[in-house]
Amino acid sequence: MATALGLVAGVTIILTGVKRKVHIGLTAALAAVVLSLFSGQAWSVLKVSLVETLLAPSNRTLLLAIALITILGRTMQVSGAMTALADSTQKLFRSPKGTILVLSSLMGFLSVPGASIFSAPMVDASGRQLGMSTAQRAVANVYFRHLWYLIYPLYPPFILLQQMSGIPYQALLLPGLLAIAASFTATAYISFRGTTEPVAHQESDVKGALPTFISSVLPLIAVLGLSLGIGLDFPLAVVIGIVLALLIVPGKGFRPDDFAGRLKKGVLAGIDWHIVSAVAGIVFFSRVVVNSGAVPVLAARFSLQASSLLILAFAAPFLVGFITGSHQGAIGIVLPILLPLLSGQPNAHQLVALLYMASLAGYVISPAHVCLVGTIEYLKGDLAATWRLAWLPTGVLLIVTLVFGLIWV
Question: What is the pLDDT of residues 330-374, one digit of tens each?
């Protein structure tokens, strides 16, 4: 009973901390300490969990991958790849609708925190050409970026999910693609409804845009091709991507000049410790959940009927994602509880995929979601008006997720 209360207290600490904008890694670590105290064997639980967090091969790979991805994103910023990408996209995709869709999507592929704010000025300009309302522009900027995270393997919460659960990429691919197709259609409908396409740019505007576009995204293409295409170790693939980002100046090709400057600003100062520590804190909490014995206690009180597992894999992650505005937090809180309950279940991977999709739906529309709030603030929009539009693509995503859940369970 005490351990179950400790788990409730730990989750409450995390939710409260996120609501008050406290760093989630810190609140997760505090929650882990509180849970360990309730377990009655605090020192041994904390010691074992800390060793597993830092030294277990899967967790080392996770933290290293997250750190390297933040370096890649920073290096691409320093090299001018992000700016060149935005400019070449506007020239290459001469339709404002195409520019909005492609540019927002590419900001997602860069997997840089807050990148929706970076694309907001370009989406704003193209949206005004179409006559889009402020709420329409906000929905397009946020949703065209984040829906790709259903299948994007360089997304930190995606990596967190895979490393914690061992779920194969294929288990997420088909449901993710179908959810993307349905949600993208709903987003396009709600974003472009009632708009008028202006006259396209002249052909001269796109001269040279394609080479710049390709050189801007080449590091990302290399990482995806090496890791997914030929199975190269993921951190090593990211290192190769970083090297390419250091050597390539978009629009100019391979340029060794100012290599030292890009190395200093992009690599040496490139790790986003905020993200790395957040993931480390979440992993630490998840290990304490397992080592404290909280899960067996919970399992004894939790019905393992199909309907109960469906609720835990669907409703719980959506609500936690919505409340916290953190996809990593939703996975870190719910997955450690769900995984032991799925032991021996033939549909375990499918239910983990369900958790991932539902948590993303809650996270994207959360009032605590930085990209959503930041986009609305930049556009000087209204959260309520944006929500009224955003619930359509979110609802479509939830319906697709629930249909898969009913089939799987």
Answer: 898 888 888 888 877 788 899 999 999 999 999 999 876 778 877
* Distance, CA of 242 to CA of 79 (rounded, Å): 11
How many structural domains does the chain have? 1
Q: What angle do CA 193, 194, 199 make, to 5 degrees?
A: 105
**Confidence at residue 137, expressed as pLDDT on a 0 to 100 scale:** 95
- Picking from 53, 47, 39, 12, the residue whose alpha carbon sits closest to that of residue 276 is 53
CA angle 94, 147, 140 (to 5 degrees): 45
Show the CA angle centred on residue 14, arms to residues 12 and 18, nearest 5°: 120
φ/ψ of 249, rounded to 5, equals: -105, 110
- Indicate if the alpha-carbon torsion angle 387, 393, 397, 398 is positive or negative: positive
Q: Which domain holds residue 252?
A: 2-408
CA 337 vs CA 81, 100, 324, 388: distances in Å:
41, 39, 17, 33
Name, in order, each residue with C-beta under 8 angstroms of 257's C-beta and a sequence gap of 6 or more. none
Query: What DSSP letter does each residue of 96-109 carry, written as one string?
Result: HHHHHHHHHHHHHH
